[in-house]
Write a structure and sequence with these properties.
352 residues, two-stranded antiparallel sheet
């Protein structure tokens, strides 16, 4: 008989954290018939594998060559048998009662395909814990542009260790492109939202902030910053393509991804440089992702910018003041931010 739930844990070089993560799964109090535990070790080079072995045979230990987060998630799903799959990063841990709470929510809401929830944010450097919870319970989806805009405000409650999905969600979106070495949970978030997700107000896991977090990078480390934003752009491009192939409306896909995608491009251009054409294309993407019926001044300014670029008349210092007077504008750009486009020693400044 298939277990009700699979706890899918992915880990890489988490020797300091993986035991706490696995103990938190076992302390959910479910029997082996109810709960299957699959741990994917993505080629760890520290003591992580030997620590996981202490939990065998209660956990299924999947060892693989290092290939990144997407490959680990694909390998884990290939082993998972549960009708519900709950994710856990190897450096986080679940609160007691998490699995029973999310399983009950799914049972009470059969039309919902996934559950997310609040969390505790634990800062290892200071030993401080902060509470991160939504104001209230919410049903979110990508049914249309407005629904997707609201859903995007709840993405912080769909972190991997907060996400529990029905198996059909993964069958619909998997496999994840394995170029996604990290940030590979975005396709899972998108799939959950397309099918409908319930966000619970309870904090049901602990998110550990530490120096080795792949997404928490020293702002002075240019090489890692560049890699982070390049990966963000790649993930957005692949997820956008996949969702469109699966029939998700263009406006919903744009609303879900455009803010993150544009910000990544702006940061890369400002920090590491790029072409005028790339800078302009990025601003046009931001414009297209803005709310309908922007002010005449805003659209007129961008039209003038288009003409300047098409005629190769852009000066070395070119400022565009963009104000959005429509209410409820989505936060693609912010007034006062400077994008620097370095071309042959010249600097193009676009003020947003």
């Amino acid at each position: 008989m298939k277990p009700l739930i699979t706890a899918l844990v992915d880990t890489y070089n988490h020797e300091r954290y993986i035991e706490q993560a696995l103990v938190s799964v076992l302390e959910q109090g479910l029997s082996p018939a109810e709960l299957e535990i699959v741990v994917v070790d993505d080629g760890s080079t520290d003591q992580t594998p030997s620590i996981i072995q202490k939990f065998v045979p209660r956990v299924k230990h999947v060892r693989k060559k290092n290939g990144g987060q997407a490959s680990a998630l694909n390998a884990g799903f290939a082993e998972a048998r549960g009708v519900i799959v709950a994710f856990l990063d190897g450096d986080d841990w679940w609160a007691k009662g998490k699995l029973l709470t999310v399983a009950d929510a799914l049972e009470r809401h059969p039309a919902v395909a996934a559950v997310g929830h609040g969390h505790y944010e634990f800062h290892e450097s200071t030993n401080e814990t902060s509470l991160r919870v939504p104001q209230q319970r919410a049903l979110i989806s990508m049914a249309d542009r407005e629904a997707t805009r609201i859903a995007a405000l709840h993405r912080r409650f769909l972190l991997p260790s907060a996400l529990t999905v029905r198996r059909k969600v993964l069958e619909w979106i998997m496999p994840i492109p394995e170029e996604m070495l990290f940030i590979a949970d975005v396709p899972l978030q998108a799939a959950a939202l397309v099918m409908g997700t319930l966000i619970l107000e309870q904090p049901l896991f602990y998110y550990r902030c530490h120096a080795q977090n792949l997404y928490a990078i020293d702002p002075n480390d240019d090489a890692k910053l560049c890699r982070k934003y390049q990966m963000t752009e790649l993930v957005c491009e692949r997820v956008s393509r996949r969702l469109l192939e699966l029939g998700v409306p263009q406006e919903s896909v744009s609303e879900f991804l455009a803010g993150v995608w544009v910000e990544a491009k702006r940061f890369r251009l400002g920090r590491f440089g790029g072409s005028r054409q790339d800078a302009f294309r990025t601003e046009m993407e931001a414009f297209r992702a803005a709310p309908p019926n922007p002010s005449l001044g805003f659209s007129g300014t961008l039209h003038w910018a288009r003409l300047c670029f098409s005629r190769h008349e852009a000066s070395t210092k070119f400022a565009i003041g963009m104000r959005r007077k429509t209410s409820g504008a989505t936060g693609i750009g912010c007034l006062g931010r400077t994008l620097q486009d370095r071309i042959d020693g010249k600097i193009l400044r676009v003020y947003l």
